[in-house]
Amino acid sequence: MTSRLSLSRLSVVSAGLAAILYLSGNSIAHADTAAPNVTILHCPALIDTVSGKLLGKTSVVIEGERVQKLVPDFISQDGATLVELAGQTCMPGLIDAHTHISGQISPTVYMDRLTKHEATWTLRSTVFAQRTLLAGFTTIRNLGDTNYETVALRDSINGGWVTGPRIYTAGPAIGTTGGHADPSTGLRYDLQDRPGEDASIINGPDQAWAAVREHFKQGVNVIKIMSTGGVLDLGDNADHVEMTEDEIRAVVTAAKDYGFVVGVHAHSAEGIRRAIVGGVDSIEHGTYMDDADIKLMKEHGTWYVPTVYTGQYVAEIAKTPGKLPPQVAAKALEVGPHIFQTLGNAIKAGVKIAYGTDAGVYPHGDNWKDFPLLVKAGMQPIDAIRTATVNAAKLLRKDKELGDVSAGKYADVVAVPGNPLDDIELMGKVSFVMKAGVVYKQDSKPVFHLSTSN
Ligand SMILES: [Zn+2]
Fold first, then answer.
1. 155 pLDDT band (50/70/90 cuts)?
2. Which residues is 297 bridged to in the sheet?
């Protein structure tokens, strides 16, 4: 994941400017000495997401796309580019472990699937990717697309052609005939896929294996399954249990062969139970999680990804007639508010929680809106921030690369004006974004990079 336009390149063109900044704000000026690959962030405060402590004045020294070291003072270095973040609190780049980056809810979304070219979806997703990154989310786990278009988006971002977060994608979700993953559920008969036509739609453990292998072949990073019905599809019901324990176990066993993390969309208590016992890594939504499920999750070390803002968002828009099809609106009003209550229970019980929002069900770029709800449901602000950093990195099994600002990790750093531990709403005012050593937002303004990649 090398970015062609690293800040070091930026530093070559801005060396003169840097020299002026040094001279005006600091008595040390060595801009003419060569060390073009180093950037130093001056953070008045830095959230250490590993210890859970707020560090004071810290210089984050970055070489290329990695953090080289932290120094508990403001230092400068010959030839390094200095970035002053006065008045701001730095923290690791945020991770949203549940997005749908290639889609977004709208009154025409159900019709669009039948009328828009696939390339239109994919090109539009580049804008959603930008918004997500500028909101401070430097990494996302995408849990469901249509035809692997997010694999293309991921590769385009990694190739340096498109600006966006680091993406770990599941491709299309895997589920059973007529269920929440079946894209032709609710359509008229002659427009529906027939069994066997869609590789993501499985019936039985053998097809589960085939689906995981097909996903591997198409280049996914993680696996998403649907063990129950859902809210936003036209056909089924969130209470339905739509995968057997054997099917779930088969997906998980196959996924292990490829090192894939498995996330499950699950609303009903029985769908959650089967998924935990089947060995999934994370329960997504978890609306009707009961005490027995919570106990099992703790025993199995299963993560909970609550998507709590999305629940409230769909319940809110469901109140306006015409915004959602009637059968979807009825489900949204029922399911949405319940997630908040479940989240409170999970926090109290000490279930492991990773940040994930279901972005796309609400407009992309508002990914921060789970933070205040996590706090309202009983979490300390520091713990809410940890769900979107260290915790999400652990869920992704990328905690050696992501999740905190320390030597050797990707230089993913964001900042907000003021202290988010005093005011969690500041998470919605991200003023600085760096991903892998490249600055994408500074002084609350986007930083434009013209791609030179071929
Ligand atoms: Zn989702």
1. very high
2. none
137-142/94-99 β-pairing? parallel
What is the number of other CB atoms lying within 10 angstroms of the CB of residue 96?
30
Range of the domain at 198: 94-395
Query: How far does the centroid of ligand 1 lie from the alpha carbon of residue 97, in Å?
Result: 10
Q: Say how many Å lie between the CA of residue 307 and the centre of ligand 1.
A: 8
Beta strand 58-63 with 66-71 is antiparallel
The pLDDT, as a whole number, for residue 220 is 98
pLDDT band at 36 (very low <50, low <70, confident <90, very high): low
* Ligand 1 centroid, distance to 85 Cα (angstroms): 35
* Judgement on whether residues 60 and 130 belong to the same structural domain of the protein: no
Residues constituting the chain:
454
- The alpha carbon of 358 and the centre of ligand 1 are apart by a number of angstroms equal to 5
Q: Which amino acid is at 65?
A: E
Q: Say how many Å lie between the CA of residue 108 and the centre of ligand 1.
A: 18
Q: Give distance in angstroms: CA of 228 to centre of ligand 1.
A: 12
Torsion sign over Cα 228, 309, 311, 180? negative
In a domain, 2, yes or no: no
- Tell me how many domains the chain contains: 2
Question: Rounded CA gap, 258 and 209, in Å?
Answer: 11
Residues 135 and 277 grouped into a single domain: yes
Report how far ligand 1's centroid is from the alpha carbon of 47 (Å): 29
